[in-house]
Specification:
about 230 residues; alpha/beta; Alpha/beta knot; 2 domains; 6-stranded parallel sheet; 6 strands; tRNA-uridine aminocarboxypropyltransferase activity; EC 2.5.1.25
Length: about 230
């Protein structure tokens, strides 16, 4: 896990990489590389190297990333990104039986949105989303809403659905749970979602002056999906 001995997570990783038929392509925003508590390295440690490929960048052209372009044009490729045009992954899992590739964007919500909309390649695969009420266990990082999941959690849920194997989710979440436990024991605080803080009058930061950001906060308080 490449962490100090006192907070080593290796005992919580699977002894052998999980056997999965789906290959994950993690499109990682460069800012995530410098985060100490990022979850993608834990995800990669749970899977075979050829089943978890990480590409770092903001812009992905067909000329610079021919392999990715080929993947995006493959009819069996899915991209996990919520939206009005996205199909629930559970429905896709029922209809599809062939192994596929899944693309997941790793970054903050604004970074992920920027990557998705400014790279035409990512609108070629079938767009899917998770329909789940699972609360994030990544409690040492603030999420927009209670049901926003980290990249590792999204991958764990998605692989469990597509592979029809609940053990996958349990195995991938184990090092994340240990990570959060270690951090809380060493002084970290539980981070409630922005949605929770706003609804309970606990949001102590200055309200944004930008009207669009203010509107997003109003939607969070009023339980409107954004």
């Amino acid at each position: 896990c490449s962490r100090p001995q006192k907070v080593c997570l290796c005992p919580f990783l699977p002894m052998h990489p999980l056997k999965v038929s789906i290959c994950l392509y993690i499109i990682q925003h460069p800012a995530e590389e410098s985060r100490v508590l990022r979850t993608v390295p834990l995800l990669a440690a749970c899977l075979p190297p050829d089943k978890c490929k990480i590409l770092v960048g903001r812009r992905f052209s067909e000329d610079r990333y021919p392999e990715l372009a080929t993947v995006c044009r493959n009819p069996n490729t899915l991209i996990l990104y919520p939206g009005a045009e996205a199909t629930n992954l559970e429905e896709v899992a029922v209809m599809s039986s062939s192994p596929s590739v899944m693309i997941i964007i790793d970054g903050t919500w604004s970074q992920a949105k920027d990557i998705f909309y400014k790279n035409s390649l990512f609108r070629l695969p079938k767009q899917v989303q998770l329909k789940t009420n699972i609360s994030s266990q990544y409690v040492i990082r603030t999420q927009p809403t209670n049901t926003c999941l980290s990249t590792l959690e999204c991958a764990a849920v998605a692989l469990t659905i597509m592979e029809k194997n609940k053990i996958i989710q349990e195995t991938i979440l184990r090092p994340l749970q240990a990570l959060c436990s270690f951090q809380l024991q060493h002084g970290a605080q539980i981070h409630h979602s922005k949605e929770h803080l706003l609804k309970n009058g606990l949001y102590d930061k200055p309200m944004p002056k930008n009207k669009r950001k203010l509107r997003r906060m109003e939607l969070l308080v009023n339980n409107v999906k954004i």
